[in-house]
Amino acid sequence: MKIRKGDTIQIVAGKEKGKTGKVLRIDKKGGRVWIERLNMVKRHQRPTQSQRQGGIVEKEAPLSISNVMYYDEKTARPSRIGFKMEKGGKVRVAKRSGEVLSGAK
Length: 105
Known about the structure:
By secondary structure, the protein is mainly beta. 0% of the residues lie in helices and 50% in strands.
């Protein structure tokens, strides 16, 4: 999976199309991604020992990983991600700008 936790991404399909945000978590097996303050849903929460106050809680819902792309800050547009071998090992590279994204895998 080319997108990682902490990456800035842009949504390319669905009701939140065009919005950018930071990846909170990824479900690799299910192919889902949670993005900070995007795709919010309301859940009716019963009071529990850990959360004394019940009520309606807003939280992020997962999106399919196919509906998001890495947001390249250098070009201010979404970009695909590739891999390249460098003297430290394999690194992620933004295809649009050619910028190295992170260190060894």
